[in-house]
Specification:
The complex is a heterodimer of chains A (313) and B (264).
Chain A lengths: L16 H26 L3 H15 L4 E4 L2 E3 L4 H8 L1 H19 L7 H23 L5 H29 L5 H33 L6 H7 L3 H22 L5 H6 L1 H7 L18 H30 L1
Antiparallel strand pairs in A: 1-2
Helix pairs in contact in A: 1-4, 1-5, 2-4, 3-4, 3-5, 3-6, 4-5, 5-6, 5-9, 6-7, 6-9, 6-12, 7-9, 7-11, 7-12, 9-12
Chain B lengths: L14 H4 L2 H17 L5 H17 L6 H4 L8 H4 L14 E3 L2 E3 L3 H27 L2 H10 L4 H31 L12 H32 L16 H23 L1
Antiparallel strand pairs in B: 1-2
Helix pairs in contact in B: 2-6, 2-10, 3-6, 3-10, 7-8
Classes of the chains: A mainly alpha (313), B mainly alpha (264).
Chain lengths: 313, 264
């Protein structure tokens, strides 16, 4: 089929039981709340809507665009679903998508499905909607699109970060390899995700502005989401460079595995080794590098948002 | 596209096909759980797990190697576990030098890697067999019986039912893009990567609106036919004596595998 698996679906056997069960518990709590919230807000009408939306996300993941050297960018959709449908409905939609991918296509395991849903559905909804909610009341379209793009980029990176941490805690991969590899790949995948999310939102704003009215968005999730989104995003921004830049003991492996690091990831061309040269190789330096990276993407997204708005207007 | 393009069900008349879907779901999850619980390097227990799987395969009448032939889907993810081979704990086995970088595989790391590989490989096969011998609506019904909230199972049922409709929609969009994107020989079609991503984004937005409006029409049509918030099925799904028997024998077999894994 045309179905292409995204590299974030963990199969069974890669996470140990404790990690799997902890994330199942977190997922069940979040999904339980989401069910009661959407029941109140939409009633029985929600079910067909969310079912079709889940099928939409599933089908939209087939939309690819050639990038370079035979690889192509793909669309994950978690942030877009949360922004347009609201965070709770977004969580339910992504839960259904991940469940069917795991159950029907063995793309992601059953015992680890809790972790997969958490990484790709809940985390992306918190970041995607939380950050967008800051500007949802603003009249500035460019700003809204830019923030949505950053949110989509960050949600992809946060999902990769958490996946890598889970693999590491489970003793499946060493942190020195899995972290830079995962983050490196998803920093790039996230850019594709951001552009697609921004373009899709711009299109929706143009043709059905009623779906994204400020009051409607505010109805779907309160200001509490802003705090949650900002905190989770900050953790992701601060932790990513730290986790991937600091070898953290285990010198022998870290050195020996330089080979694999090179083999699995090629990025970090803008900020060599994810540090700022004049600050030296300290934790401060990597954190600053992370913030600079985030600002660069924010700037890019402002430009992108502006261009898209002009073209559509 | 054909409605069953996404179906993973293989029709056959077999004891496994006739088994109550609840039993199949519970045993599959128990089997995956059992794999996760086995300690690293419990080769005998992993072997027994494989035999369990082969027996299930032959009971499905789809062929003993049915799941084996389809089990390579999880292979790409194996790359992530390769680093476990070089875990610093354990005795170094060798030192390979490749272009100035030396790799030191250790015995403990190798055992860990092999165990992860086997666990994943067995678990993926169990999942493949489950959807091959159970029709998806029955599977959803089983989850409902197992106390998964009806809202969630109904969303999944809708996702499954309309997936091929929306896939058709995506394929039409892709075909339209292809036919617009003519290229001179030797020249690339389309503009920059950014431009291409933007086109994909517009297609996603287009898809979103079409799906959103379609869900409105579907809801109204269902309402007109008496939809009251839940899906109904004509299949009763009653647990018979045979179902209980298979369930208890399978659980006992898995407990035995655990025992072997612990003492081995």
């Amino acid at each position: 089929m045309h179905y292409a698996p995204a590299p974030l679906h963990i199969p069974d056997g890669f996470l140990n039981l404790v990690v799997s069960l902890i994330f199942w518990a977190l997922t069940i709590i979040a999904v339980g709340i989401a069910i009661s919230k959407t029941n109140k807000a939409l009633g029985e009408k929600q079910v067909p809507l969310m079912g079709i939306m889940a099928a939409f996300i599933f089908a939209a993941q087939m939309l690819n665009f050639p990038v370079a050297g035979g690889t192509s960018g793909h669309f994950l959709g978690g942030a877009l679903a949360a922004i347009v449908l609201g965070p709770w409905a977004g969580i339910l939609v992504m839960t259904a998508v991940v469940a069917v991918q795991g159950l029907l296509f063995q793309d992601g395991g059953l015992l680890v499905m809790g972790a997969n849903i958490f990484n790709m559905g809940i985390l992306t909804a918190v970041i995607g909607f939380g950050l967008y909610r800051i500007v949802s009341g603003s009249a500035n379209k460019t700003l809204k699109l830019a923030v949505a793009g950053v949110a989509a980029w960050l949600s992809t990176i946060a999902a990769a970060l958490l996946t890598a941490l889970q693999l590491w805690i489970s003793g499946t991969s060493s942190l020195q390899i899995v972290m830079p590899a995962m983050l490196g790949v998803h920093v790039l995948i996230g850019i594709g995700e951001a552009i697609i999310t921004v373009a899709a939102l711009a299109f929706i704003m143009q043709s059905r502005p009623d779906l994204l009215q400020a009051e409607k968005v505010a109805e779907k999730g309160g200001r509490g989401w802003i705090a949650a989104g900002v905190i989770v995003s900050l953790i992701a921004v601060l932790l990513s460079p730290l986790a991937s830049g600091d070898p953290d003991g285990l010198e022998r492996v870290a050195e020996d595995l330089g080979f694999l690091e090179v083999g699995l990831d090629a990025p970090y061309t803008i900020l060599p080794d994810y540090t700022i040269p004049f600050l030296g190789e300290t934790a401060l330096s990597t954190i600053v590098a992370g913030i600079v990276g985030a600002l660069v993407v924010l700037g890019l997204m402002v430009v992108v948002g502006g261009m898209l708005k002009k073209r559509n207007a | 596209m054909h409605a069953d393009a996404f179906d993973r069900y293989y029709a056959a008349e077999s004891p496994l096909h006739r088994l109550d879907p609840r039993v199949k779901v519970v045993v599959t999850v128990a089997f995956i759980l059992s794999n996760a619980l086995l300690p690293d390097g419990a080769w005998a227990a992993f072997g027994l797990g494989w035999i369990f799987l082969l027996l299930a395969n032959s009971a499905s009448k789809l062929g003993v190697d049915f799941t084996f032939r389809r089990s390579f889907i999880a292979l790409p993810f194996m790359l992530v576990a390769v680093s476990a081979i070089f875990a610093p704990s354990g005795q170094p086995l060798a030192e390979w030098t490749m272009g100035g970088i030396s790799l030191v595989p250790t015995d403990a790391g190798l055992i860990r890697f092999g165990s992860i590989l086997l666990r994943t490989w067995l678990s993926v096969q169990a999942g493949i067999l489950l959807v091959a011998v159970t029709q998806f609506p029955d599977l959803i019904h089983a989850f409902e019986h197992l106390r998964v909230p009806a809202v969630l199972t109904t969303i999944v049922a809708f996702l499954y039912r309309y997936l091929f409709v929306l896939t058709d929609e995506v394929l039409r969009l892709l075909r339209a893009r292809d036919s617009r994107s003519a290229a001179l020989p030797g020249q690339k079609s389309g503009r920059t990567v950014f431009w291409r991503a933007q086109i994909a984004g517009h297609m996603a937005g287009q898809m979103f609106l079409r799906s959103y409006e379609r869900s409105d029409r579907i809801y109204n049509a269902m309402l007109a036919r008496g939809y009251a918030g839940q899906m109904r099925t004509l299949r009763a799904h009653l647990m018979r004596r045979r179902d209980w028997l298979v369930l208890s024998v399978s659980i006992l077999a898995l407990l035995f595998i655990q025992l072997i894994g612990r003492i081995g």
